[in-house]
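Sequence only, no structure available. Ideas?
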Amino acid sequence: MRDMADNTRTEPDTTPARSRRPHRGRAAARTVEGWLGAFRHRLSAGELGSLPVVLVLATVWIIFQSLNDNFLSPRNLSNLSVDIVGTGLIAVGIVFVLLLGELDLSVGSISGLAAAVFAVLNVNDGMPEWLALVLAVLTGTVTGAMQGFSFARTRVPAFVVTLAGLLTWNGLMLYILGDSGTVNLDENGLVANLTSYYFTDDAAAYGLAALATGMVFLVSYLGTRRRRAVGMPYRSPREIAVRTGVLAVVAFAAAYLLNRFQGLPLALLIFLVVVAGLDVVLRRTHYGRQVYALGGGVEAARRASLSVTRVQTAVLAVSGTMAAIGGLFLASRITSVSQTSGSGVLLLNAIAAAVIGGTSLFGGRGTTWSAVLGMLVIQSIASGMALTDTPTAVQFVITGGVLFAAVVIDSLSRRSQEAHGRA
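Reply:
I predicted one. Tokens follow.
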């Protein structure tokens, strides 16, 4: 027995520890292959995320920079960051409505109505700016809530209710402005400063970049800990580090360019804070989960005892509120309110921004950041056209083509998700 034991005794492994350790290059290669494999799987399943709009934005910037060297200049990019705010805020409200699978056609008229209310109360009636501003925003909230309640209780499609609102609120705006038709705002007033004030200290832009990067890292890290604790799939620390690093490069590059002109625009700061705050509301609160649930199916949500009427009313109220705030920023940009406020291509641009940015027309998919990306694409096209002296008609054709492509991608993505059982 002892001989057998001696014969079967395992010889000690004399291989150096360094040789037994897996090669770091091969381990890294396997990690990269895993990421690429997971990425390809998500694409095949229709989970495109923000990839299409990022590629479109990069293409637009490369084309216009090759046509005019001033396109990516600090001055033009700073102006671009302010120009996207007014319509972008309206587009953020549109995102909420699209998440329900509905459409709000009244946001342009509501934005003009709110601007008219502010202008008449402040300039004509002498009301303090802050109070007139609050009442103007509440005007948007009330009109949106009225439309939302009508939509929820009557079950008439939202686009029909808001189409009636488009005409009603536009007529009310014309009545409020009266015979003069145009009201000029105080160029040194509170509303005018919304788009004309800049934080000239370099620390402001860099501080915002550092804060944004830190917050994204913290949210990702805490989310990973929670998901790992309950046994759900989670991002690896390396993936979090890479995502945070990419964001840091973009954020600090943007801060550097802004500081080379006039500094951080107040309008951009407000815009980013509002978008981030509403993103938290949508993705981290009970109300936000209800909005996504309704976008997945109204009847299913109703059977799950969700207050459909309350959520739908609140969503249209949010849309009206954002339209009013956006209207004030648009009025601030030109320091006046006229009978054309809220008209033209404003409504189309707001809807297009939300859709181009990745918000699904079928409901249930999208974030507030979709409006930011989509608005960047639309305004970049407009800015590039202006620098290259291209006719406005061509701008409409290009924007329409991008919107059509976004809708097609959305439809194909949804079909792919349905085929993979993810829709």
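The chain has 18 helices and four strands.
Hope that gets you unstuck.
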